[in-house]
């Protein structure tokens, strides 16, 4: 258990550093928009557009991959039951109300990296933009105060791993 306590201590320190930024309020405003861009309905729209333009294998990889990613995400979320920063830290209030109780892993980050990986496979010219966006989604969740840094790192790994599996199997 000592290693988990050490990881949590480093995580809290990194989170506190983010929250101590001079322009934290401005970062939170921008973070809301970035975080919103990673909400689930946009991913459904992406899959529909891909399907309509003849990328049926990629659209299938997105659909089936999200079933895998969301299943693993829920298993991890319910298994670890890590409190969100507002519940774990004294005198801290997040900028938004999260959609669920636990923070590990970050679902927004997982979804963003999943989509970025899948789309990069078909459209490598936009890879840099997609990964910058996915990284910004992860950072936005920290700056909104709803995730610790390791929540977003593990979300990125989960999304990337599920995408690699789906692309390898279906595309």
UniProtKB/TrEMBL annotation:
Every Phosphatidic acid phosphatase type 2/haloperoxidase domain range: 57-167
Membrane-spanning segments: 42-68, 111-132, 152-170
Chief localisation class: membrane
InterPro entries xref list: PAP2/HPO, PAP2/HPO_sf
Annotated compartments: Cell membrane
Entry keyword set: Cell membrane, Hydrolase, Membrane, Transmembrane, Transmembrane helix
Membrane topology term: Multi-pass membrane protein
Enzyme class: hydrolase
EC number(s) reported in the record: 3.6.1.27
Catalytic activity: di-trans,octa-cis-undecaprenyl diphosphate + H2O = di-trans,octa-cis-undecaprenyl phosphate + phosphate + H(+)
Pfam families assigned to the protein according to its UniProt record, in alphabetical order: PAP2 (PF01569)
Gene3D superfamilies per UniProt: Phosphatidic acid phosphatase type 2/haloperoxidase
The protein's name: undecaprenyl-diphosphate phosphatase
Organism for this UniProt entry: Marinomonas arenicola
């Amino acid at each position: 258990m000592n290693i988990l306590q050490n990881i949590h201590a480093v995580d809290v320190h990194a989170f506190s550093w983010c929250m101590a930024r001079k322009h934290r309020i401005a970062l939170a405003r921008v973070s809301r928009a970035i975080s919103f861009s990673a909400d689930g309905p946009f991913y459904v729209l992406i899959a529909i557009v891909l399907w309509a333009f003849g990328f049926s294998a990629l659209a299938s990889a997105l659909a089936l991959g999200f079933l895998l990613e969301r299943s693993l995400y829920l298993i991890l979320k319910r298994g670890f039951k890590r409190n969100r920063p507002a519940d774990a830290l004294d005198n801290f209030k997040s900028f938004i109300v999260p959609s669920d109780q636990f923070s590990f892993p970050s679902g927004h980050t997982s979804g963003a990296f999943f989509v970025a990986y899948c789309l990069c496979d078909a459209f490598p010219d936009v890879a840099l933009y997609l990964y910058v966006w996915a990284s910004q989604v992860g950072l936005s969740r920290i700056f909104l105060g709803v995730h610790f840094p390791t929540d977003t790192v593990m979300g990125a790994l989960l999304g990337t791993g599920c995408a690699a599996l789906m692309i390898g199997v279906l595309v």
